[in-house]
Amino acid sequence: MTTTSSLPADPAAPAAAAPAPHRRRRSFETAARGRGALLGIGGFWLASRAAMLWMLVNDFFSSNLVRVEVTATYHNWYDVLSTWTLPQHDIMWQYPPAAAAVFLSPDLLPFLTYFQAFVALTVLCDGVVLLGLVRAARRSDGSMAGALLWLVALPMMMATPFARYDIQVTLLAVFALLALRSRPRAGGVVAGIGAMVKVWPLLTLLGTPRGRSTREALVAAALSCAALLAVFAALFSDTFGFLGNQGDRGVQVESLGGSVLMAARFLELWPGWIDFQYGAFEYIGPYVPDIARASLALTAVGFLLLLLWRVRANHWTSATPFDAALCAIMVFTVTSRVISPQYMIWLLGLAAVCLTSRNTTQRPVAWLLLAANALTTLIFPVWYADILATSALGTVLLCLRNGLLLYATVWSVVRLWKATVLRGRAPDAAAA
């Protein structure tokens, strides 16, 4: 006679045997979703960048105004640089000496025209930025939000990004930040190279944790800057000629100070006018020098505030270097005498890096920048004629965009400060 035990089955037995196929199934489904997401990102990147290229070559919304930067300005510089001379006598040359490498880079594709080669290399850099952001999302605290922001935000600018060299500079800043987390020396080297191309990538080192990481990054940046400077000083003459041209800049129409003058001009409270000089449309008339000096003073105040944050900060997370870099660039951009449309590429690139980490404090700031980016496209190139004519539409658009940037900058500083400056707390062990 067979009897059946009334004892309950061992609860550990199914737990030991059953989960294996379930774990395999879940891992396969996760991998499939990951591959599907990557295919979707790749497909959208190809489609959106093809649309941007179409706009660039088909005069969509006055793309001829966008193309002229490459076909005329950059190409003219290329002709001068090819003779191993920096175009320091051109008042539009306002860049550190290593920028020459970017303008000479179309020689890498000799089978294309200068314009075609420059645009092709810019598109390539755009794709490399996206790959870096996707890879950063695979970290333990990672998020795909950064890659998605970059993927969507750039096409919102229509053709402008592919006819400027700011994507190349943003690439250096993005990879400097991403490298700082595990390789401070490599991050410092890339930041130093970026500084010799367009200065501002050096600010990516502001948020490195105190101690060894900061020392290694700063020393590496200083050495790479010195090495590049020595190389270009040997190849070209007057490597610091750009400083004089940069110092003579006035108040650009699209700047924060420019929006104040635009509102006053629209209300007929200011008798000034607009003129093209130093490669941009600037205001001419009474109080312009005062506003230019006020902008420089605000930049100095912003820099001191960032230094104060650096001294007072006592809590670091994996996202703090990203957040500090975005905050610093926003401060310097908003207080600048110049806010060209392509400056949004810098801000969006750094915001995308912030969003690669779930620990970032700058998430709402990043979405504000996305809105400011949409307004920037309406300002240039869509309704740029209204901006220059100081129409009601142009005045409202510019004041709204600059007001949004100013609000986002203040909010960025406040959020960074609150998250990292904790009263009554000793510095974190990781930052000490």
TrEMBL record:
Keywords of the record: Cell membrane, Membrane, Transferase, Transmembrane, Transmembrane helix
Subcellular location: Cell membrane
Membrane-topology annotation of the record: Multi-pass membrane protein
Keyword Transmembrane (UniProt): yes
Coiled coil (UniProt feature): none
TM region(s), chain numbering: 36-57, 114-134, 146-165, 185-206, 218-236, 291-309, 365-385, 391-414
Bias (Low complexity) ranges: 8-20
Principal subcellular localisation of the protein: membrane
Region annotated Disordered, chain positions: 1-25
Superkingdom classification of source: Bacteria
InterPro entries: GT87
Pfam families, sorted: GT87
Family: Belongs to the glycosyltransferase 87 family.
Protein name: Glycosyltransferase family 87 protein
Gene source species: Streptomyces katrae
